[in-house]
Task: structure prediction
Amino acid sequence: MTEQTGRIIKAILAVPRGRVSCYRDIALAAGMPNGARQAARILHSMSEKHRLPWHRIVRADGFIALESGQGREVQTGLLRAEGVRVSKTGHVDMELFGCAK
Result:
């Protein structure tokens, strides 16, 4: 595992239960201002192995990135189980549930 990957994993693990972050902010927390896509790739490929709370990461606009039938319903259910309000369109209020920067 590269140092950058380790920093991204650490940033993802730091998102507390009942809160969300976005790919961009995960990358920034890892010291990689242009690393949002890398954060997404790590979530996709390493969530199970590292037990990452993948469901707590959404797009910067607060929308769940997954499409309906591709995991959106699972992510919505996991977030709601933690007390995060998710709209019918898959939107999370980042002001209310986002992690402080």
User: Anything to note?
Assistant: The chain has a mean pLDDT of 94. The first helix runs from residue 3 to 13.
